Amino acid sequence: MNYSNTNEHLYNDIALWEKTDGRDLFLEMPLTEKDAPSVLDFGYGFGENLFALSYAYPTGKIYGIDCSPVCQKEVGEKIAARGIKNITLINKEVHNLQDFENDSLDLVLLYDALHGGDGKGKYMLFEESHRVLKTRGCLSILPVHLSNWRDREGKKKTYSLKMIIDEVQSFGYEYAGTCSQKGIHWEKCHTLYYIKKGIITFDILERVDVMNFKKK
Questions:
Q1: Residue 214: enclosing H or E segment and its boundaries?
Q2: Does the global pTM surpass 0.85?
Q3: Pairing between strand 156-157 and 149-150?
């Protein structure tokens, strides 16, 4: 893909990723329903994965949850400007996934959403994702900030990929591998320190193998 890899055109590169490599990442997800899946992106941030999902599944239903007013405003404006009809934003802080019925979703993304806090949110998301996913539905994780994850006692612990697999499988999933396309950790694009320095280019963003799990 012909990315400019310049700071000046960073957000053009991101938009290109959403339509190409990002779209292809989500088309690789091990879904039973591939034509019009129902998908949740928990903690959608500035919407990069939401838009890629929309391009991957134009007849699907794409939901995003985020509690940040800044993200809500920017992503809402982008959706309107692009005329996208299949993305629904749920703009609030949540402590469960009560907006979704049991066995109603084909894919849940937990990308850059499982670190920090007291650790309780991570286990809530594993449990609630299992409830709302259809049988053989997919939970997809982008494992970042692994030194800042917490165990059930709220103690900070550096997680290995094996620890993640074992923990997630204990909630009723089976590990289904990764994708050839890597996920992207978008944090530096939206961190004021790096923005002020003007040094962020698309090619230096962290690439990470996603971890896919199927609900038993």
A1: strand 211-215
A2: yes
A3: antiparallel
